[in-house]
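Supplementary Data S3. Sequence and C-alpha cells for construct A.
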Amino acid sequence: MQVPAAAERNKGPILAVLREFAGGGAGPLRVLEVGAGAGLHAAHFARALPHTRWQPSDIDPRALRSIAAYVEATGVPNLLPPIRLDVSQGWETWGGTQPATLDLLVSINMMHISELRCTEGLFKGAGVLLKPGGVLFTYG
C-alpha cells in the first residue's frame, strides 16, 4: 500500500467538505472516485462515510494494486474493489456505471496532472452519470 504524504495531510480537510455533500440520506449514496491513486483517500472516506458505496478507480495498474491492498487491509464493507477507468474514454466504459445513478463523483488531484481530454471526459461523464442534484467534487 502506498501512503502519499500529501494524501495523508489533506484527507481530513477534504473529508470535512465531503460530509457537506454526502450527509446521511435515505439509503446508501453511490460514489465513484475517478483517479483514486494509492487508495488512501478511498479507504479513509469510505470508513468515515459508512452510508456510501465507495467505488474507487484508476487507470494505472500500480495504483489499482495499492487500492486493492487498502480494500483488503481495511475490510471496510462499503469500499468496493477498484475498477480500471480511463476518464478520457466515454462514460460507457466506466465500469458499467449507468446514467443518473451516482450521487457523488469525486476527483482528487487528477485534473492538474492529466491531459485536458481527461478533464473534458470527467465533466462529460458527470453530466450523464450523476443523478439530478448529484455533485461533482474536485480537488487539486
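Construct B, processed identically:
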Amino acid sequence: HSVVRNALFCLETAAGEKENHVYTKALMAYAFALAGKEDKRKALLDSLEKEAVKKDGTVHWQRPGKEPEVDLPYYRYRAPSAEVEMTAYVLLAYLTTQPAPSQEELSFASLIAKWISGQQNPNGGFSSTQ
C-alpha cells in the first residue's frame, strides 16, 4: 500500500536525523522490525544499546537529563511509565526479527525482560496502562 510505503519512507528519513530522542528510537526500531527492515532495526538497536542503563544484571532506557534514582532502605524504586513503555518497545524490537533472534539478542533481551518484570507492582500490573 502506498500509505504504508510513504510512512516507512517518513520513518527512514527521521531515522537519519542526528538527534533522535531515545523514545523515538525505540518506537522506530520496533516499527522497522515489524516492517522487516532488518538493517534499520539493527542500526537503531545498536544506537540504543549505547544509551542503555545497565545496572544489577538488567538493562533499561530512561529519558535524558532524568534525575538519578535514590537508593533508600526499604524502598523499591519504580520507573515512570514512559520509561517502562520505551524499554518494552526495545524488547519487542529485539524479539521481532526474521528468521529468529540470535542467541546474543535473546540473552540481551532477557536482561531487558528482567528489568521490566522488576517494575511490576504487587498486583502484577504496572504504574499505568501505557
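The chain has one domain: 2-118. The domain at 2-118 is CATH 1.50.10.20 (Glycosyltransferase).
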